[in-house]
Design goal:
The longest helix is centred in the N-terminal third of the chain and has 15 residues. The chain has 2 domains: about 750 residues, TonB-dependent receptor, beta-barrel domain (Maltoporin, Chain A, Beta Barrel), CATH 2.40.170; about 60 residues, no CATH class. Helix 7 packs across helix 8. The relative contact order is 0.12. The protein starts with 5 loop residues before the first helix and ends with a strand. The chain contains 8 helices and 49 strands. A hairpin with a 5-residue loop joins strand 29 and strand 30. The chain has a 32-stranded mixed β-sheet that branches. It has a 5-stranded mixed β-sheet with strand order 1-6-7-4-5. The protein is mainly beta.
Length: about 1000
Amino acid sequence: MHYPKANQTLMSLAVAAACAALAPAYAQEVASAATTGAASDTPVQTVVVTGMRNSMVSSMNLKRNSDGIVDGIVAEDIGKFPDTNLAESLQRISGVSIDRSIGEGSKITVRGVGPDFNMVLLNGRQMPTSNLGDLSGRAFDFANLASEAISQIHVYKSSRAETPTGGIGATLNVMTARPLDRPGQQASLGIKAVHDTSASNLPGDVKRGNSVTPEVSGIYSNTSADGRFGIAITGSYQERNLGFNQAAVSNGWKGPFRGDENNWGTIPQPGTPGSENITNRPAPGDKYSVPQNLNYSMNGVQRQRTNGQLTLQFAPTKDWTNTLDFTYSENKIQTRRNDLSAWFNFGPSSSSWTPGPVSSPLIYTEIINPAVSDIAMGAGLFATKTQNESIGFNSAWRVNSSLKLELDAHKSTAESMADSPFGSNSTIGTASFSRGTTTADFSQDFPVLSIQGADFQRARQQVTGSTFQNGYMKGDIEQLQLKGRLRLLESSNLNFGAAATTVENRSAFSNQQRDTWGGATSPADYPSSVWHPETVRQYFDSIDGSDNPNLFNQFYTFNFEEVRELAAKASGLPQLYLPKNTFDTDRRTKEKSKSAYLQINTDWDTTLPIHTAIGVRYEETDVVSTALVPSATSISWVAQNEFPITFGPPTFTTLEGKYRHVLPSFDSDIELNKDMKLRFSYGHTIGRPRYDQIQGGTVLDQLARINGGVGTQGNPGLKPVKSKNLDLSYEWYYSPQNFFSVGYFRKDLENYAGQSQLNATPFNLRTPVGGALWNQAIASGCTGGDTTCIRNYIFRNHANAPGVTVGPNDAAGNATGTIVGQPGDPIANFVITTFANQKQADLDGVEVNVQHMFGNSGFGLSANYTYVNSGLEYDNASVGDQFALVGLSNSANLVAIYENAKWSARAAYNWRDKFLSSTQDGSGPNPNYTEAYGQLDISVGYNVNDNLSVQFEAINVTDEIQRTHGRTKNQALFVTQSGPRYMLGARYKF
């Protein structure tokens, strides 16, 4: 007996891995895939459906007829992908979870494997990535691509020799429209009006644009009468105005400390002054942390996204198809921010604590008397632009009935840069120096800041410090792929291929920082009209705890450009209020890879038909990393715990690395009957390290502290993470539109690049801490934790000493100025984070899927649940370096639909359990946990006639908040409120 559909399936997977030109590109074609290929005695089941059901059934048949463990999403019709955002569509697939940015899906985690280790292809081609929010990552940002030009997405979860490497979680192939796949003229035009409610809940100084913004998209596809020529043009333009308000301990928590420690930052030990003010103190050996700051920010965002693609196809014969395509996207984002914050300097305090062994403060109060500390009120202006361009050529040739060849070449770039004369990320700090005793209440979801003694009339607002940053990132890929398929026997095929890929990544950064946090200019330099009174509570009304009557509910907002101009004029140093025109840090990495694979696919004529694929892939990569990094020259002490580093001319360093891998794979599926399949796959894959892990050069953070500083250093010799993957799956297609599947997967990971930290003294920088003048202040009666006393002593008794520059007294009568480390002072210690292949991990999980259409009622249901498990979880009671899997979480989806000739409706609920999102916060190696989050999206459509349809969509209907915490739930890091988004649109199909 001949194995049904095998030859068609083999062809589909081989070509889909490199180019969408020969793959089934539209819903009805995928739905009919089960009826094509070699002759078979298997009965043909024909299903005629449209719209959402068409998309869901087509996706089911894609899963059914693919080799290996494959899921996918198919467009409902030309120019009509199921969701407005590709990542939000992908989250409906079992095992796929998304990370959200400004209320949209941006990056994906698959089966517990984070975004950097999922490979994204565009028409079978590896795509570069560029994101100033993550200067050194490999994760593809789906927010840059509009969905209208996408015909389908394939998600390859199991490893095969013919699948490009880089995706340990999955390899995703995003496929765009091809005119020859759909002969004749096809065209549609869509318009939408978008109202994001979050754009209205903002202060006037950050609110921008109209409450309703437009989206326009169109697609045109046509072929010649003889089917030899084809052209497709797609385009879209989207504007969106939105906002988000965030309460945050944005610079992280200091610690963790042991309950028996007694040094700077710790709470008073028993028997010392202030210890009587501690309730339920952490026991000896317990771990606890204290907040460094508490910040409330209001952020207004404008985004403009432009996408376009031109595809030309020429088929001189029915066996030879040539495709030339150009893809362009641009994503521009402008953010305005106002904030209110208070910093803790770890003086006398009172506090109450959660139980150990890991404790967090419920209430933390720092006693400040007189009320002369700073109430910080800042403004930020962030503007970035990301552009992606890809030009590619594909030639697919059926040489004869036994041999098929395919050549594919492309050059693609992704580039992110500043989109403002003030840089990519710039802030101006202001303050009223009237803050007295300050309390942070972490007992509820919303952390509550309370301030005593505030008097904005007595201590008028003035500009303090500022930063003007410029970021730049560019990815460049040139790739040549050759592949083929040779039929060896009636039931066997040999798939083969080779590729050469060059990937270049550049990330650069500069920072113009003025560290005058004690006051840069006089309050008299700013007319009172530039400060606009505001209240806090109204911007966080959806978060539990924001109604606390103790909330400090007053602050001032201001216009960034207006105050920047006044500060530049008042200071007489206008150059410090603009970004640098050169980069301080410029790191460049080149990876040159060669690969080749062989894979033999065979159908076995047994009682139960079996199809197997046995293959091997060879990968060889050379890495060259060149880095221009700042050379540090000195440390200055400018405020109680502010020790900025001065940098001199940057210097270049170059390092190299290389690796080779042989990656075997085995895949099989067994037809139990015409409706049931068993699948088994085993194979090896690799995931390349992040760019910051392999970039050379030691980079120090600009601001050090009393106990030293921190920095980073890459390792170009890192090996990729290697994963040994096992997949088992049972699939039951119990009717033409319905299926049930359950799968088990396991991944054994080795060579994971764990973070390691080392103590170093780069550049031999001298610090005033512990130096001669410091020690004299201690001898005079100051304590080591009272930096105000030490600074007053030095300024008043050694005003003319080398490195000492005395400024005016502040409002409390304390001296200000700078103290620069001198020869003979101690050399500052820096904790340098670097990377090494020193970790192993394993994870396993189960996926369950069900799709059921209720006969001809029009109702349908799709549901899935993914359980992921690994013993490598973060130990919250442990201090220092440790290894844990980032992104590991359970997830679930429930989608209900109704559809008839006129109406369509869908309600989609996506849920993701709590997961570890990072092992770093602003103060060092500490866990960030993103709490469980569920979101409900609804859409309703109406077909006016065969050509015109209208649709209403609602995103985040229940107005969910997002929350991130540290070692305990009370250790809040970020609590974010946004709002629902509504869209009303019309689409005309020609």
